[in-house]
Amino acid sequence: MKIAVCLRRVPDTTAKIVIAGSGTVIDETGVKFVPNPYDEYAIEAALSLKEKAGGGETVVVALGGDAVQETMRTALAMGIDRGVHLHGTPSPDGLENARVLAEHLRGAGYDVMLFGKFAVDDCGQQTGAMVAELLELPCATAVTKLDIAAGRATVEREVEGGIEQAACALPAVFTCDKGLNNPRLPSLKGIMAAKKKPLEVTPVAPGAGSVTVAALALPPERAAGRIVGEGAAAVPALMQLLTTEAKVI
Amino acid sequence: MANVLAVLEVRNAVLRKGAAELLAAARRIADASGGTVDALICSVGPVSGSDGLGAAGADRVLTAQHAVFANYCPDGMAATVATLTNAYRAVVVAATATGKDLAPRIAARIGAPCAMDVTVVDSRGESIRVVRPVYAGKALQTVDLAGTAVVAVRPGAYAAVPAGKAGTPAVVTVPAFTKRLDVTGIRTSDKAALDVAEARVVISGGRGLGDPKHFALLEELAAAFGGEAAVGASRAVVDAGWAEHGAQVGQTGKTVSPELYIAVGISGAIQHLAGMRTAKVIVAINRDKDAPIFKIADYGIVGDLFEVVPALTAAVRVAKAH
């Protein structure tokens, strides 16, 4: 089984966001970058699918500048076999990035193409499904269960008020949600091995697309709140505020 | 003229809630330029709840009927929408699990940009201007979308507005399409619990609960609200296996905007705050008076949650009984 994992490099979720002088992007000074947390579920799914199949190849594919290679090495350290770095500047238009990824994935013989549910930076939540459409392949998004047998996949995904169940033939695209698995940590041996794993670099040029970022701003600060009191004795005062001042009860 | 197509969600022949809110967002785009709003319903047969769509802002109500729409069929819906989009400046869907699945498929089919989880929409000359939370709510991005745009509007972002439009019925033909994904059904969860993203009141627990069994305290408080409250959780307790991942509020979980958010035993890590800071009112209950959660809470009680929560539950029951 040949499996691709499309990876994004994002700021650590604990990072404080500071807007850069341009007013359209964040200031990356001092920000730690990590593999997108949802992509780690995709990496783990790729590794366990290959283990279960008893063979095959796992490939991490990432679009970005030089720095993305460090993130790809993390995937290689977790056990992914090799990397393809699509070297270029991602477009603010997710469809343009999807076109670049689809162009690479098309005809490369992948049985399964995995993405994270979304990247925690731009929260675009579209690349995986767009790639599937462009390749005219089945796609299930935000899966929390993924079973593959005899060339077919059965999946589960969370919807409001329940779990949706679906099935499709391979090859197919899946985007991975929390709950799918518990991503392994890179072992020391894996980290050493990752340095020697092949990482092929291909220059790409995503189009400008139809999206212009006009501004990036911090959300308005919430007005300072107050401590109503201490312990259960403060509950009547809290109830008073919730019913008469805030009017939410 | 910016005409807008609102693709509505149907489950078991019933229109999902949020249709009127989505039509209000659609009208906001259309009305700026004298455009029209069409609602699209993909179903097997008649759909209950669809008769009020004109009143909620639909100039026309398009129905596309096909046996395949017994369950959610993204391939059939995207194909149907793609036959219509020449007439529209924007296609809007609700940013639910289903809407977020559908929006990028439509966008890729028609070669349009897609904006997810949008909280503000506006028509701006030849573009659609939207505002959307990024970095899980730690920042807000303003984006201009040229040409036809696909926009997923976050539930709760717009209130329904009575519009008194005609809601003229029209039939749309489902084109030939390949059903690549076969959705076989929905297993409703045994608890039939309200989703944290949809609830008017969210009560979330963190490590301060000390033990997963103490979530029962929060369940009781939620029950006191009588079916309008859901129980959420911090990442720490979800990772520890105390709560299901679907309940997680924060940057790697759900972003919620309830009217009332009660944080119990949650210190307030930056990634958690990002997921709930847009709640209308935030209450924090924590024994550490220096916990960061108190910095963004409107009302705080410093104290032992095992005393405060049962007292609050009793008080809410009394208030609700009146």
Describe this structure in words.
Chain A has 249 residues and is of the alpha/beta class. Chain A is 27% helix and 32% strand. The longest helix of chain A has 17 residues, at 37-53. In chain A, 50% of the residues are buried. With 322 residues, chain B is α/β, with parallel strands linked by helices. Chain B is 25% helix and 29% strand. Chain B has helices spanning 19-31, 74-82, 97-110, 215-224, 235-239, 270-276, 293-296, 305-321, and strands spanning 4-7, 10-11, 14-15, 37-43, 60-65, 90-94, 114-118, 120-124, 127-134, 139-146, 149-153, 168-171, 181-188, 201-205, 229-233, 260-264, 281-286, 299-302. In chain B, the strands form four sheets. In chain B, strands 7-11-6-1-4-5-12 form a seven-stranded parallel β-sheet. Chain B has a five-stranded parallel β-sheet with strand order 15-14-16-17-18. A three-stranded antiparallel β-sheet of chain B has the order 8-9-10, covered by helices on one side. In chain B, strand 16 (260-264), helix 6 and strand 17 (281-286) form a beta-alpha-beta unit. Chain B starts with a strand and ends with a helix. The relative contact order of chain B is 0.12. The mean pLDDT of chain B is 95. Chains A and B meet through helix 3, helix 4, strand 7, strand 8 and strand 9 of A and helix 3, strand 7, strand 9, strand 10 and strand 13 of B.
